């Protein structure tokens, strides 16, 4: 199922990154933060002793700010939380939604080489990635009722190499972003997926997408 891992991280296809930013803005404006299927890929990992050796898990993925802004955006997330938590979790959530309406503006503002997720650190999928970091993220959107640009048919496989993080600047950014909406997530790890290749796999196809 997996192609041989490439040693060098490659940029995500520009159209993919623009779509990811657009679908997140749509989520803030039209869904009050409820995740769209476009940010919920299947994460497929190698797992010995199960079926044919591969298992797919559902996740919600995130984008990182472009590297020069990473620590600054983390500080902004933290300040937003600290300034409003006295008014309760709902106040933090609402302020977070308002902030993200301006945050998801241009693909140029985001890291174009990776995506992330946050999961309990002892889950089987996390253990699988510690053993073998080669994995795939499959984004599948198929909704005959949604005629919008963000909801159009897509089936994309991103081949990735995952780092499992329990500290550091990337961990802090993802953890703090998540805290705005779900509270503190103790005993969690950040999975940092470094993009290798993307393939369009609609209806049995396998076409590599260049940047």
Pick out its properties.
5 helices; globular; single chain; alpha+beta; 211 residues; Pnp Oxidase, Chain A
Write structural notes for this entry:
By secondary structure, the protein is of the alpha+beta class. It has a single domain (14-201), classed as Electron Transport, Fmn-binding Protein, Chain A (Pnp Oxidase, Chain A). It is 33% helix and 25% strand. The protein contains five helices and seven strands; from the N terminus they run H-E-E-H-H-E-H-E-E-H-E-E. It has helices spanning 14-30, 70-84, 89-103, 124-131, 169-182, and strands at residues 42-46, 54-58, 114-120, 134-141, 154-165, 188-200, 207-209. A hairpin with a 6-residue loop joins strand 6 and strand 7. Helix 2 packs antiparallel against helix 3 and helix 2 (70-84) runs parallel beside helix 5 (169-182). The protein starts with 13 loop residues before the first helix and ends with a strand.
Short description:
With 211 residues, the protein is an alpha+beta fold.
Largest sheet: 7 strands, antiparallel
Tally the helices: 5
Unreliable stretches: 1-6
Shape label: globular
The CATH H-level homologous superfamily? Electron Transport, Fmn-binding Protein, Chain A
- What is the name of the CATH architecture? Roll
- Count of separate structural domains: 1
Radius of gyration: 17 Å
Helix content: 25-40%
CATH topology grouping: Pnp Oxidase, Chain A
Number of strands: 7
What share of the residues does DSSP label as strand, in percent? Answer: 25-35%
Q: Can you identify the CATH class? A: Mainly Beta
State the end-to-end distance.
22 Å
| Topology order in helix (H) and strand (E) letters | HEEHHEHEEHEE
From the helix content, strand content and strand pairing, which structural class follows?
A: alpha+beta
| Mean pLDDT level | 94
């Amino acid at each position: 199922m997996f192609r041989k891992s490439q040693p060098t991280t490659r940029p995500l296809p520009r159209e993919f990154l623009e779509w990811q930013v657009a679908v997140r803005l749509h989520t803030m404006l039209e869904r009050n933060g409820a995740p769209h299927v476009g940010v919920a890929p299947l994460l497929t990992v190698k797992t010995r002793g199960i079926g044919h050796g591969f298992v797919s898990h559902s996740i919600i993925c995130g984008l990182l700010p472009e590297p020069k802004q990473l620590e600054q955006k983390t500080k902004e997330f933290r300040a937003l939380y600290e300034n409003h938590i006295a008014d309760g979790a709902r106040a933090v959530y609402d302020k977070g939604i308002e902030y993200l309406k301006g945050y998801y503006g241009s693909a140029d503002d985001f890291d174009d080489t990776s995506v992330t997720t946050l999961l309990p650190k002892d889950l089987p999928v996390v253990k699988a990635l510690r053993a073998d970091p080669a994995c795939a993220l499959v984004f599948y959107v198929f909704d005959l009722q949604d005629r919008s640009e963000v909801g159009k048919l897509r089936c994309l496989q991103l081949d990735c190499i995952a780092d499992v993080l329990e500290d550091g600047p990337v961990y802090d950014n993802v953890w703090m972003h998540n805290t705005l909406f779900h509270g503190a997530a103790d005993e969690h790890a950040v999975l940092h997926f470094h993009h290798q290749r993307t393939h369009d796999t609609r209806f049995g196809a396998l076409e590599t997408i260049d940047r």
